[in-house]
Structures are given as structure tokens and as C-alpha cells.
User: What shape does this take?
Amino acid sequence: MEALDFKEIQPLRDMTGLLELARLIAQVGGPKKVAVAAAEEAHVIEAVNEARIEGLVHPILFGNPERIRRIASELGIRTQNLEIRHAKNPAEAAELATQAVSSGEADILMKGMVQSSDFLRAALNREWGLRTGRLLSHVLIYEAKGYDRLFFMSDGAMNINPDLKAKIQIVENAVTLAHVLGVNPPKVALLAAVEVVNPEMDTAVEDAIIAKMADRGQIKGAVIDGPLALDNAVSEEAARIKGIKSPVAGKADILIVDNIDVGNVFYKSLIYFARVRGAGLIMGARAPMVLTSRADPEEVKFLSLATAVIAAERLPYVHEAV
Ligand code: COD
Assistant: This one.
């Protein structure tokens, strides 16, 4: 019998399916190694420990060993099961965890109790970081009531105010993650407040340029349109009422926002008000990176790890196919 590989998969439609695939990958190939930068935070320890018990990951925790052990004990976690490595401060923990991934010792990098900007700067370090020459960007993956598909939203956590060139790479990174989760080709909506190209709205003009580039085959692997307002991107009825004729309208898988403020409020509204199950990954680096907000619920961190396990396994196949 041929060995089971994960080159071809069915499109994942919800977090339950995503978790099942992550479990299967770990069953077949063993747990992925995850290097955690500054692990002295309860939600992080809980999430990596749950993923460890499920066999998804083998965590290597960088930080203050005493504090990590104390938090773990308070959570009822047996510390002898954890691999802990000393770092004298969060910046050093970010450096050591990043090096564990860039040296190939670990498969996934995860942010703990360290400022996002310090964590990201470590990943961008020219000597020992995880740069590929591509833009790094954050993608949120979430499921929503009443929809039979996963949504991808970017970028609400890394790129502050992307220009046209950066926005194109943000689209491409989100498309790569959709392919990783079997959604191929995904439908991409470039979000704006309007669905007409208003010359006074620079970002809507950029959206129209990106859509035209996609039409001409300059961006591959996805069906792309914009500008589209959120309602007519995800509701076929809204698109019909507004008379929008577009293969993406009402059917979008990927939602691209203009800047970090829009994306971050979008992300946190979903998690706090709508209580959706979500996960976040940084794409574009040499390995998947889990960057969740320090206050994010443990489930977001756990699901992000599961997504990273799939990405660590499938990214080489997805890159091969391009
Ligand atoms: N991808 C690849 N390379 C990048 C990126 C990127 N997204 N951003 C910067 N670089 C490279 C630049 O090309 C340059 O070579 C070097 O990194 C430094 O660039 P600067 O000076 O523009 O970058 P920094 O160090 O000032 O900032 C980069 C951050 C990622 C730290 C910054 O963009 C940031 O703070 N983003 C917001 C993070 C955040 O607070 N998120 C909160 C939500 S969790």
C-alpha cells in the first residue's frame, strides 16, 4: 500500500474538519515541533499542552523556566512533560525560538508573552530570521454560522498600512493558505466601503487595479474581485439586490482589508462579539508562525497551532504546485 501523504486534500469547510486533518497528519508523521517565544503565559501553555496531549505538537518553551513551571503547575500541568529552555528576557526568547526554527530544529514558531513587534522583528532578522524575500502577512481563518466554508481575512495583525505592492503579496499569502487548506481556487474579495470604483478612494482604486491584474493572469491561483463591500462579498442576496455581477460577489472565501486597524477590529469583533472559532497564522516566512494576541482565548491559540501543523506539512506541496 502506498504511504499516506497529504499532497491532495478535500477543501476544509470548518474548524472540526481542520482539527481532524491536523490530527491525521500528526498520526502519520508524528507531532510537529513548535518553538514558543516567551512561553510564560497561561493561555499559551494551556494551548500548547492541549496540542501536545492530542499528539499534534512537541513544544519547546523558551523563556523564564521558573515562571513557566509555576504557571504550568497552577494549571495542573506536569512540568516534567515540558521541554523548557532558558532565555533571559522576552526579546532573547524570541531570538532563540526563531533560531530553533531557522536552523530546522523546529517546524513552527509561536508568539508567547512578547510584544508582537519584537516577535516580528526577530522573524525578520537578516542573519537568523525566517525571511524568504516575500512579504510576511497575517491571515485569520474562521468559521461563521450559516456558512458552509471557512473564511480567511488579512491583514489585521502585521502590515500597518500596506501599499499596492504589499497588498498584492497579502492577497498571494492568503491564497497560499487557502490552498494549504484545500480551497483551490479561492474567491478573493478586496473589501472597501463601496462596490464602485470611486476615484477619491485610493484604496478602492488599488482594489480595481489588483482585480484587473488578476484578470490578466498576473496573480494566479484565485478568482479575485474588488472593490466589494463586506455585505455583497459574503451575501448572495445583498449582491443580487445591488445588481453586482461578479464571480466573487456573495461567494468570497478570502476577505482583504486595507489596513491593520480595519483588520484588527474585524478580527476582535469576530472573536469577542460573534464568538466565532478562529485561528491566525503569519504566512510568507520560511515556516508557519502563530501570532495570536496575548489576550486571545486559549481556543484561538490551539486552533492556530492545528492550522500551523497543516501548513508545516502542506506548504512544500503547495509551493511545488505553483
Ligand atoms: N514582511 C517582510 N519584511 C518586512 C515586513 C513584512 N511584513 N515588514 C518590514 N519588513 C522588513 C523591511 O523590508 C525592512 O528590511 C525591515 O523589515 C525593517 O523594516 P521597517 O523598518 O519598516 O520595519 P519595523 O521593524 O519598523 O516594523 C516591522 C513590524 C512588523 C515590527 C511593524 O510593521 C509592526 O510593528 N507591525 C504591527 C505589529 C503589531 O503591533 N501587531 C499588533 C496586532 S497582534
Remarks:
- Residues 134-283 form a domain with the Isopropylmalate Dehydrogenase fold (CATH 3.40.718.10).
